[in-house]
Amino acid sequence: ACYWGKPEWWIYISTSYIAKIIATIWLSLIAAVYLGRNEKEIPGEGRRTLDIVFAFFGSYGIAQQLRKNLMEWEGRYKMVVENASEMILLLDTNGKILDSNLSAVRILRLKSRKELIGRNIAEMIFDNSGNPINWENYKESFKIEDTSDGPHIQRLNCHIITSSKEKVELDMALSGIEMGEIPLMMVLGRDVTEENMLAREK
After folding, report:
1. Do residues 159 and 126 touch, judged by C-beta distance below 8 A?
2. Which secondary-structure segment (H or E) carries 166?
3. Residue 93: φ, ψ to 5°
4. Cβ(107)–Cβ(87) below 8 Å
5. Mean of the per-residue pLDDT values for the chain?
6. pTM to 2 decimals?
């Protein structure tokens, strides 16, 4: 208004207000993204003036940190599972083996994990009478109970017959887990052949 009618009027407008309009639109976009991702206000926590800007530009650093932590925990998981002395199997609802650790390969007297993954565990194990295991009896293990008693665990004493006709006796614990809302079963097992033999001799 002060420069209206003077030659420098357009110069002042172009150097001041246009820049302010662009900055306002840019900050509005940042605010829209930030507020869209934070639908609920956290009680007792207010937003400071520059929180929106920091949150927008700081998200990349946070994502990198989370990715680093995820890789670190994944490495720890692999170290624990692969070095466990017990057999660990991951099964689907039909008893198909989806994954295993190296101890499972050793306990089941196999040469590699490829011989194990994809096979049905019900076709590999037998009860104490030598009959094939009825997998339907153990589907209850897929139940995941949110109780103070912990997960629903079923015990299974069974054995396998290896390719060299060796009998390996197993003590298994079956419990249900969920991965991406898909019910799976985790099997922990140990070789009790020698332990049972000593008990029978005694």
Report:
1. yes
2. none
3. -65, -20
4. yes
5. 79
6. 0.58
